[in-house]
């Protein structure tokens, strides 16, 4: 069964203001990198996948599988999972599969919303995980945090357009991580 919390990716998705801001801040977090031999972007291919290929200097594959039950094929220097785990029934399974798909010194770049009150969740999210619980999840999946950051995904004026957007200004952030495999 395909996860009903999975968001449909189409050309409209690539042009949303929130994605443009998120992708820009994600590239700022990644920074400049040495070229790698192989990369995998978890989820559907988007225009952001092309940007990742430029940053890492290699072609990126994408997944077209049920991330709650299917295995990731191949071994990669870099795997990215941006805004993925909040849509999954079982994020631990996906993280374990990612770990198996990384080469020994490989890196996982992952982002997900910081947990916020349930009434502010996106309808397509099955989980929104607070930082402390996410750290436990990484540890259970045998990852360690190399570095982390948080950022907002809306322009400042958005948070003053109503009561709910104002609450989003207080609670809504994206947490982003660079992770390595525990040895």
Please, how many helices? 6
Mean pLDDT: 87
CATH fold title: Rossmann fold
- Hey, roughly how much beta strand do the residues contain? 15-25%
Assign the CATH architecture.
Answer: 3-Layer(aba) Sandwich
Question: Which helices and strands occur, and which strands form pairs?
Answer:
Elements: H1 11-14, H2 17-30, E1 39-41, H3 47-56, E2 60-62, E3 76-82, H4 91-101, E4 102-113, H5 131-140, E5 143-151, H6 163-171, E6 174-181
Parallel strand pairs: 1-2, 1-3, 3-4
Antiparallel strand pairs: 4-6, 5-6
Protein name: Methyltransferase type 11 domain-containing protein
InterPro entries: SAM-dependent_MTases_sf (IPR029063)
Characteristic key phrases:
6 strands, 183 residues, six-stranded mixed β-sheet, alpha/beta, Rossmann fold, SAM-dependent_MTases_sf, Methyltransferase type 11 domain-containing protein
